[in-house]
């Protein structure tokens, strides 16, 4: 059996290899048809690009507020400055983390370490924050699909993507409604229903996290509202980037479908979603735009958005440099805790199979 640490390194190499491989192929393909030459040679609207940067930053700030609401709803003593600091550190680690420990794990671990009397609640805030963010993306995409008639597209692949989005939204709505039922807190049959002990462990964590918020519906509704605003602002940011770059682009209504679906690729286990976001946006620009869009236009828009997110993540680098030793210890502890949890799952699985 491969040692845990070696397995983490292999996973890290694979994650970065897949991400950078996808991105390298997209860039190579764009160079073949002079996409980057067109970007450099043709005029750009710097005012729109600056506004896009402002909107993306605004969306990031609202995401911090959303998490802060979820933390304070559980009566955890938490200062807005701490929310700002920990969120940016987690955002930074989404890009630079190597192995199994990502930004969400770091954010949850640091909060739990600073709130030793609220460890379970600290983990729940990060997990619920991620669930609400993903669910809001699906809801926004589904509403846009129904509002702007994407199901009537002449392209079979577009109709298939839209139907899959609607089905996923309905399924996630049903699952979340089920998990919010009081009886789910006493559910002990997860391993018997699911084929994977690791998947059962994830479901148990989701059930536990949502159970903590069952008596805080206002916090959940408020966080959902913030999420919708966050995703609309981000979509407008993408639209302004597209309008600020040379070349035609999809309409705003088409962006309201394309961008949420693209951002939902963030659930893939790739560092910062690198590669998946660029590939998805480039494909959907071609597939869902009613007007002709230049080849690789989606890649250009995605790369500009990526630059904006990296600039935002650099704020986290400042905090990292200020607390390097503390964060190094926290990262080591988080990796050890993740490894211990993984070993426990493996042992449980071996017992169940014996």
Short description:
With 354 residues, this protein is mainly alpha-helical. It is built from 14 helices and no strands.
Explain what you see.
The chain has 354 residues and is an all-alpha fold. Helix content is 77%, strand content 0%. The chain is built from 14 helices and no strands. The protein is globular and about 55 Å long. The relative contact order is 0.15. The mean pLDDT is 79.
Strand-residue proportion:
under 5%
How many beta-strand elements?
0
Order of helices and strands: HHHHHHHHHHHHHH
General shape: globular
Please count the helical segments.
14
**How much is the average pLDDT?**
79
- What composes the largest sheet? none
| Termini separation | 18 Å
Helix content: over 70%
The low-confidence parts are none
Return Rg in Å: 21 Å
Task: Specify the structural class.
Answer: mainly alpha
Topology of helices and strands:
Layout: H1 4-32, H2 35-41, H3 46-72, H4 80-96, H5 103-114, H6 119-147, H7 156-179, H8 190-193, H9 197-212, H10 217-244, H11 252-263, H12 276-288, H13 297-322, H14 324-353
Helix pairs in contact: 3-4, 3-6, 3-10, 3-13, 4-5, 4-13, 5-6, 5-14, 6-7, 6-9, 6-10, 6-11, 10-11, 10-13, 11-12, 12-13
